[in-house]
Amino acid sequence: MKTSDQTSDNSSNLKDERKKNKFKKKKIKFKNTNSIANIHNSSRIHEKKEKAISYLEKWKNDKNNWKFEKLTQYWLLKNMFDNDKVPEKSFEVLLQYLVNLKGGSKQLAIELCENVIKNMEKKLSTDEENKVSECSYHRARSVLQHL
C-alpha cells in the first residue's frame, strides 16, 4: 500500500513531466517559427536589394521619374560595403549618386567609411582577425574619394 508521501511524490513527478513536455513543445514551436522568420527575412532582404538597385538605376537613367526615398538611401548607405547586397555594377552607380549627398546623409557616409578604414588599418597593424573585408575597405576608400 502506498503512503501519502509516495502518492504526493508520484503526482509531483507527473506534474514535472507535464511541464517538461510542455516546455519541449514550446521550444520546438519556437524553432520552427524561427526558421520561418529566417526565410521571411531572407526574402525581405532580397526585396530591399532589388528595390535599392532599381532606385539607383532610375536615378541614373530616368531622373524625371525618379523620386527621393530616404529609407532606400539609408539602406544603401548601411549596405554599400557588402558586395552581396550592392553588386559591383550597382556600386559604380552608387558612387555617382553619393557625390550629391548633403547634410546628415553625407556625414553618415563619411563616418561609416572612416570606421571601415580604421578597422582595416587596425587589423593590418595588429594582425588580428577582423570582420572588415578587403572589398569593404576598397569600397570605403572609393566612397571617401567621391565625397
- Average residue pLDDT: 79
Beta strand count: 0
Q: Determine the structural class based on helices, strands and strand pairing.
A: mainly alpha
Number of contiguous helices: 5
Coarse shape = elongated
Tell me about the biggest sheet? none
Stretches with pLDDT under 50, minimum 5 residues = none
Number of domains: 1
Approximately what portion of the residues adopt beta-strand conformation?
A: under 5%
Cα-based radius of gyration, to the nearest Å: 26 Å
The SSE order reads HHHHH
Multimeric status of the protein:
single chain
Helix amount: over 70%
What separation lies between the terminal Cα atoms?
87 Å
Describe the structure.
- This protein has 147 residues and is mainly alpha-helical.
- It has one domain.
- 79% of the residues lie in helices and 0% in strands.
- The model has no long low-confidence stretch (mean pLDDT 79).
